[in-house]
Amino acid sequence: MKHAFIFDMDGVLVDSNPTHKIALKQFCKKHGYDLSEKELREKIYGRTNRDWLLNLLGNLDEKTVRAYAEEKESLFRELYTDIAPLNGLHSFLEKLEAKGIPKAIATSAPRANVDFTISRTNIERFFPVILDDSFVTKGKPDPQIYLKSAAALGMEPSQCVVFEDSLSGVTAAKRAGCKVVGLTTTHTREELNETDLNIDDFNGLEPEFVILKVF
Fold it and tell me: Which of 8, 132, 133, 142 is catalytic?
């Protein structure tokens, strides 16, 4: 059976959520909201900017949503000066490449953040298939992005292994019918209790081990 590996970006390819947290807190405080850690983890992480902005700020027109989203993401890119791939990522991607395993990025982030991330971590060549927030009308935990990612790879969702760190992302991948590997960058192993396998990073990880464990 052929398999494909699909990667969320923030918290998976890079441990960017601490910087997103700072940017979110600064943005929200500027606009009159002081979010708790629990609210950030349950209501914002893993979701599209449109989804969490409407949830937080109420009925906004599309022009305002786009302006607020760009304000927050520009702040994030300005703050994220120590960007680096998650430990072991390059080696793991090289192994997937050598074995001819199809790969994709499926993220709730805007394309500007994707380009910023993959260029600065030198992983562009590994991902000919990238789906960002512009590819979906329903954000995670809806399965749309993972259904579309599997289709873009020419695979059935049941053939795909998704790497996720957020609870909304795990739910989206499971609803799509994919197997899920949880990264413990954002949530504990106990919180990631719906995944098929949990890892701290990619250090020493072998594709065959992942496939054996989740299928």
Answer: 8
The one catalytic residue in 10, 15, 132, 165 is 10
Query: Catalytic site residue 15?
Result: no
Q: How far apart are CA 80 and CA 65, in angstroms?
A: 22
Query: Class assignment of domain 4-15+84-214?
Result: alpha beta
Ordered by start, the domain boundaries in the chain are: 4-15+84-214, 17-79
Sign of CA dihedral 18, 69, 118, 116: negative
Q: List the one residue out of 196, 171, 200 whose CA is nearest residue 184.
A: 200
Residue 47 has pLDDT above 90, yes or no: no
> What does pTM read for this prediction?
0.91
Q: Is 10 a catalytic residue?
A: yes
Does domain 17-79 fall into CATH 2.30.30.40? no
